[in-house]
Automatic annotation (TrEMBL):
It comes from Poecilia formosa. Keywords: Repeat. This is Cytochrome c oxidase assembly factor 7. Residues 199-230 are annotated as: Disordered. Transmembrane segments: none annotated. Belongs to the hcp beta-lactamase family. GO terms for cellular component: mitochondrial intermembrane space.
Amino acid sequence: MAGLINFEDEKEVKQFLDNLGVEYSYQCYKEKDPDGCQRLADYLDGVKKNYDSAAQVLKHNCDTYGHSESCYKLGAYHVTGKGGVTECLKTAYSCFVRSCNAGGKKSIDSCHNVGLLAHDGRALDGGPDATLAREYYEKACAGGFAPSCFNLSAMFIEGNAKGLSPNMSQAFKYASRACELGHVWGCANASRMCKLGDGTEKDEKKAEDLKNRARELHGAEKERQLKFGE
């Protein structure tokens, strides 16, 4: 059939991929389509393994259009210095903030990353900022990002010396939400709180249900790891 690619023909595949690169470049620089720029960056990164060029496209798309996914990936490049960009957590932090606030694909991941960097303080001149970390974890948790919900729970269990008081009812709330989203340790912590009546009413049955849910999630994760290793 005309138009179909024979993926067993190396030359035909190469021509197809080269044509994709031309098409994405046209979309990005001629049509000024931010999604086209993202496709071009993904093509350069994933197909051509040309990380330097991919970084340039990501920077263009983030700086010019504020494209959420490009800002996220540019931030990830700056974390490790990939593609010849400066390895700099402060720059990565700025990219993640921009991605988070822009909304769209990868924005929730970016909100979580901002929370992480604010929480440990490595990207901030003033050191750890629990209030800022909480703000961005809450954004990511509201978007359904389980690790942020779990981190919020841990923050409310521990509290800190900078104004965040321990609050076990909030800790239980976020542990339960993390569990609903499939976080093993969220389920385990929520189970323990129910068993002890810490932050919620003591409820042995609910504690057992949550413990069983944690076991199910842990078993599913082990199964995925085994299949991945086959």
